[in-house]
Amino acid sequence: MTKAYVFAAGPLLWVSVIVFAAGCLLRLGRLAWLARKKDRPVYAYMSAHYALRSIGRWLVPMGTESMRKHPVTTVVSFAFHAAVVLVPLFLFAHVLLFYEAFGISWWTLPEEAAYAGTLVVLAGLVYFFARRLIRPEVRYLSGPADFALLVLVALPFATGLWAFHHGPGVRVVMLLHVLSGEALLAAIPFTKLSHMFLFPFLRGYMGSEFGSVRHARDW
Amino acid sequence: MDWEPGKKSVAEPSAWSQALLVELAVSPDGERLAAVLREEGSARVVVNGEPWETSFDKAWYLRFSPDGRLTALVNADMKWTVAVDGKPWEAAFGFAWNTLFSRAGDVMAACVQDNGRYLAAVDGKPWKQGFFDLSDLVLSAEGGRTAAVVQAKALAEGDVFAFDQGAFAVAVDGKPWDNTFVNCWTPVFSPDASSVAAQVRTSPREYTVAVDGKPWEQGFACVWEPRFSPADGSVTVPARTPKGWALVRDGRPLWDKTFAQVLSHEYSPDGSRVAAVVAPSFGKWTVAVDGRPWRARFDQAVFDLCFSPDSGRVAATVRHRGKWTLACDGTTWDESFDMVGPPVFSPDGSRLAARVRRGDTWTVFVDGKPAGDAYARAFDPVFNDDGVRVLVRGISARGLYFRQVVAL
Amino acid sequence: MEQTSTQTGDQGLEKSVARLTPDQIAKTLGEILKSEGGARLKAYVKTCMSCGLCADACHFYLSHENDPRFSPAGKVKQTIAPLLKKKGAVDPEFIKRAALVAFTQCNLCKRCVMYCPFGVDVAWLMLFVRRLCSRLGVVPQYIQDTAHSHSVTKNQMWVKEDEWIDTVFWQEEEAAEEVPGLTIPLEREGADIMYSVIAPEPKFRAQLIYQAAVMFHAAGVSWTMPATPGWDNSDMAMYTGENEIMGRLKRAHFEAAMRLRVKRIVMGECGHALRSVHDMGNRWLGWKTPPVPVTHAIEFYWELLESGKIRVAKKLKTPVTLHDPCNVARGLGLHEKARDVMAALCEDFVEMHPNREYNICCGAGGGVINCGPPHKAERLAASSAKAKQLFDARTRGARTIIAPCHNCHGGLEDIVEHHHLGMDLKFLGDVIYECMEKPWKKDEEEQGR
Ligand code: SF4
Ligand code: SF4
Prior knowledge:
By secondary structure, chain B is an all-beta fold. Chain B has 2 helices and 42 strands. In chain B, the strands form 10 sheets. In chain B, strands 1, 39, 40, 41 and 42 form a 5-stranded antiparallel β-sheet that branches. In chain B, strands 34, 35, 36, 37 and 38 form a 5-stranded antiparallel β-sheet that branches.
């Protein structure tokens, strides 16, 4: 068990980080190359000003017409996305591990905040899951992969919460926590989770098109 | 022709009559100004104040032939025809339009429509046969022959399936090719007028060139206007290949480079060189001569591509950052303008001129510098044989027409 | 959910699909997906989170009582997503359904793009599907015929060269009867502007050319129109996915302007033509911006009114509302200028809601109305969202709808009739012509005295 944990938290972690980083770069690189070959105008019309204008808009809660039309989903989405990024990055336990390994540390979330954040993530996932089931327009679009993705995201947070509460089987759960976290990280570039790093490019391109060619808002 | 430097006022059309002046044209030697004057349901052509004998119900498209004869499209008794120096062609038609001249101007042609049939007429003589439709009429340089795209087969309204079978052909001197195509465009004569090449669509998705009705074996995603090489009679065409746009000769790539776009292309008169308007990358335009693009890039347009008569130089009008100017052999004139006319080379190719527009005035520029006065309207400059004089023809803001010869 | 019928009575779909074999489909589509399936295609389809937030942006979805198949992402799910996954290996029935969705259930209005957090451009994707279908020869008959007309005559309505010139002469004659000294200058090289129209103008609405001539005459505009192909700025080939024909058309249009040495092109009140000239056709040719600047009628009217070249004699009294055409509002941000023009012309202006970039499409755009009678019922079945919006403006007083776009006119006329809204439609040009000061009238009166 311990061996497995050491392996998971050591080499395997490296693997997942590398897969994540290399995967993201690879996909971005491939898209950039494809665009150069077949969508030349994409480069011609990209405008930093309009790209940032649009990205900025879409990062402000209730900043767009679409968000105002779906206030609950918007609130849940923003809270969820903030928590899903902040909690793992600034969790005291994660930073501590990093410090022990490399002697580098950074600001950490207060325990209550991290706890609340985890709950927000899980609640958000439940909301998304329910939304996929209940809303006909979303259910129509949802396939097994979409639900699986929600579970994939839920796992590290649920196991983390379990471990924090020292629930039964905590050692197994910890192992699961590490493994699922790594799986999630490694899955980002190859699943729809890639929206994480594609968002600025897609949004930026659309912002540029609307700003510099169409002279209209895209929010 | 009078090449004595100086400026003289030739005509003042506003003094000719109270009638509404609707169109103007100037003779190649600059000695005559012609106008269409309209009044009370009739139109009269007037040259230097002298009206043509007959007036017409309508007259328009005043054009001087290169040999100095004046033509207009005229309408009388509900029939249209071409009038030359006041004399209408004997034959008249339901409609006549698009007057064309041979290089020397001795032969004229026009598109005509009679009783719903479409054909061409050369010096008043219509083709023997008419078609459902006609477009892209060309007259060979020496004037002997005509060719046009014609709809050779009837198409029921909305019959997209029959359309795909091909209903269009090129008719040469009124005789259509045996083959029909989905589309034909821009026929062109070989220098000796013995052959005709045209763009064709062999299926809804395949484009190529057909020479005398026979399509090339190779198909492309798209093609533009073909040209015959004056040197060896081969046919070239800009074509979209899987690698990009290329200049293709007799079905095979001529240059090793491909481009984001290759629009028009032209041969030097001696056939030794070929130039094309190309976009090396999206939104960047230039001219490539024998496959080598100029260093300069223009962000909006390159147009009016032409070689000098001695085949030595290539020029084009270019638009960059909202302004037009001329570029020749890769070098752009220093000044840029709101608009420019087509480039005109002196016969030996040593000088290059064009009329240019700034605000509301037009001036003739030679080699990037003004020659002659500014006018409210100017016509294309003309060089004398050794290129040391240029003829400037312009109409002043007050409506006076001037002929000005400038020593260079 | 019951399966909607794909029996359309449209020969362009039925007969063409009947000729297809699965092998042929796989081969053709495989090739084109490989050669043209670029980064945008991949990024759009793969980034879509199936969140459904785009659904209520789409009037098809709204009008079909929130049937998810009509949501933007729902259309992707029925068309390009499986096509990509199977690399084009689908059966003929799939192609037919995909063609039906892409050609008749999406106006390419891009409203959904503004509502999707990622800016997934479903309109762009549907256009891609149309191109795939067109490569297989599966295109609704009416719009295919229109694209064929473009390929032959370089205009939308099989108008022959002599017919165009003759129509201009006819309108010139008529207008000169009202306005002494008026001309419509064909082929006037060196004029300031080239005015271009769409072929339905000479064919069905020739009075629009008349009105434009009167306006330009009053304003002292130096203008011309070509007597050659290139006079028509419209482009249904853009909407059938025949980009090669689109490029050919735009080249003819721009080269006519360059040959006539005009400073710019002013185009009539048309939306899709603006999209073709300003956004799509030029791009296909490699022109990042149009080689000759293009001004849409709205903007030109705005200039004429703003500069005082055209003065308003009496404002329109009837309460009016404004429909912002997708291709001029979302397409070029002309909605504020349109309102300035309205303010100058109309006493009583009633906004419809939503408006500006958020306006709901007329249901005709994107070539949908051009798919013709076989699809009209289907089009009107998707019109209740628009009808509601119009009805609301009507209850607040609006009696006339101003729509500065030909397609919108067609679409809105049908909706008004179908839903018994009792409103009438006008172009901005109609209103200007009606309200402008006509100096020659005064002269005549003085002479009569
Ligand atoms: S482009 Fe318009 S019609 Fe098409 S899916 Fe989007 S909102 Fe609907
Ligand atoms: S297109 Fe955009 S809004 Fe629509 S489901 Fe996909 S990601 Fe969501």
